[in-house]
Design goal:
This protein has 248 residues and is an alpha+beta fold. 28% of the residues lie in helices and 31% in strands. 38% of the residues are buried.
């Protein structure tokens, strides 16, 4: 048992993932099926890139810290994992930067058509990859800070970061969030971010989505993001180190 509660937002102090250079046992067992799935994807969605991402095993939650072991896998393996949702010890853990404007709107993105998550709405995020490895460990926070800059043009070093992380799990999918308070109103921020999206050569993002209440996110919001939206608008104040010990 992982000890990570399911379908409930919990407070985290840290995520510690150690990189194992060996092949992920689930990937090793499913290698032929992964290749076959990728061959089909190349026909249906030839624009997808089979880069290297991190897939995890042995996730555990204890005293506000999630620990686990991370392996490099091809993106094709993650797509196969998403399609099959195996019960094996294989986990997809990723981070999201939840950007809150000075007038308390949550700023989300809608993915462009030529991506793996076309039309989906969520906070800037992405699968952890080799850029997030430092000193033999995976840094979840570097991943979502980098994704926010790439996807919206906003450098989160300029924002106020909430002290704890938040975590939501469904089966073997684990979303880790940090909320950031930006010091400008949504209208100003979104205008600037849309200009970044318009000129971004990657063209991964279709548009920004401004959420001032849970219904604003629309039907294509992902389940993990909906959980954070509901949580945020029920408890919009940032948590400091001396608060909310029982919120998990």
């Amino acid at each position: 048992m992982s000890g990570i509660p399911q379908n409930r937002m919990i407070r985290l102090e840290a995520v510690r993932l150690r990189v194992d250079e060996a092949m992920h046992p689930w990937h090793q067992a499913e290698a032929q099926a992964v290749d076959a799935h990728w061959a089909r994807e190349q026909v249906e969605r030839p624009w997808l890139f089979n880069g290297t991402v991190m897939l995890h095993r042995g996730l555990r939650h204890e005293a506000g810290v999630v620990t686990g072991i991370s392996h490099r896998v091809p993106y094709a393996a993650l797509l196969h994992w998403i399609k099959t949702q195996p019960r094996a010890d294989a986990w997809h853990l990723f981070g999201s930067a939840v950007m809150i404007s000075s007038d308390n709107a949550m700023l989300l993105i809608r993915m462009a058509a030529r991506t793996a998550n076309a039309g989906k709405v969520y906070a800037p995020s992405g699968s952890l990859d080799e850029n997030d490895i430092s000193g033999g460990c995976v840094d979840v926070e570097s991943g979502f800070v980098r994704e926010a800059l790439e996807e919206t043009g906003y450098d989160l070093a300029r924002a106020e970061a909430e002290q704890p992380l938040w975590c939501w799990r469904f089966d073997h999918r684990v979303a880790v969030f940090r909320r950031f308070r930006l010091n400008e109103p949504a209208a100003v921020l979104v205008e600037r971010m849309r200009e970044h999206i318009r000129t971004d050569p990657e063209q991964e993002i279709e548009d920004m989505v401004v959420v001032r209440a849970p219904a604003d996110a629309g039907p294509s919001v992902t389940p993990y993001m909906k959980a954070m939206i509901d949580f945020h608008f029920a408890a919009p104040d940032f948590v400091t180190g001396c608060q909310a010990g029982g919120m998990g």
